[in-house]
Design goal:
By secondary structure, this protein is α/β, with parallel strands linked by helices. It contains 10 helices and 5 strands. Helix 2 packs across helix 5. It binds cytidine-5'-monophosphate.
């Protein structure tokens, strides 16, 4: 069975948490596509060449999760040739036998416009900043400012800007628990799964 779940939304909205829970529940493969852009930026040198040469090993670096790596990722992600160098890999991954979940910014709009399920996960910038701040520490006001800056860059770029696909299910996690958000996402997946495969 080929079955793609596309999850998009801004940083720290809960995409990864929802994606991992769905992957576990339904037995889908999971790709965090933000990691590709983080690894391209961390590799250094010419970003387009870094994207072309990206290896599985590059994705295993332990310095990819920092705020700085996220900011650097969003800068290289605005370069169209970087995005196109990463497209085929993501599209192939999306057709993994048994189903796949990809989360990012342009999965439902550009990478997998025919995905069986599209979710757009968001929440207020303040709530997202607090979540990120709990993970990374530092100064909350600065975490919020950086998050807003990254949102603006991701939503404002010319190529594949962050926006909900027209047919995406919107999940605003501002006043939700993780369990509530996962339950809503699961309903959307179940509604599209062929009946004999529902766990
Ligand atoms: O999701 P994450 O915070 O790891 O993404 C880092 C950056 O990579 C984002 O701010 C965005 O600029 C870029 N990105 C993207 N398209 C994706 C995934 C991430 O442009 N599909």
């Amino acid at each position: 069975m080929e079955f793609t779940v596309a999850i998009d939304g801004p940083a720290a909205a809960g995409k990864g948490t929802i994606a991992r829970a769905l992957a576990e529940k339904f037995g889908f493969a999971y790709l965090d596509t933000g990691l590709l852009y983080r690894a391209v930026a961390a590799k250094g040198g010419d970003p387009v060449q870094a994207a072309v040469d990206l290896t599985a090993q590059d994705l295993g670096r332990d310095d990819l999760r920092s705020l700085a790596a996220g900011q650097a990722a969003s800068r290289v992600a605005a370069i169209p040739d970087v995005r196109s160098a990463l497209t085929d890999f993501q599209r192939r991954y999306a057709r993994t036998a048994g189903g796949a979940i990809l989360d990012g910014r342009d999965i439902g709009t550009v990478i997998c416009p025919k995905a069986e399920v599209k979710l757009y996960v968001t929440s207020s910038a303040e709530v997202r900043a607090k979540r990120r701040w709990r993970e990374v520490g530092g100064d909350l006001a600065q975490v919020l400012a950086e998050l807003r800056e990254r949102d603006a860059r991701d939503m404002g770029r010319a190529d594949a800007p962050l926006r909900p696909a027209e047919d995406a299910v919107l999940i605003d996690t501002t006043d939700m628990t993780i369990e509530q958000a996962v339950a809503l996402a699961s309903v959307a997946v179940r509604a599209r799964l062929p009946e004999r495969t529902i766990p």
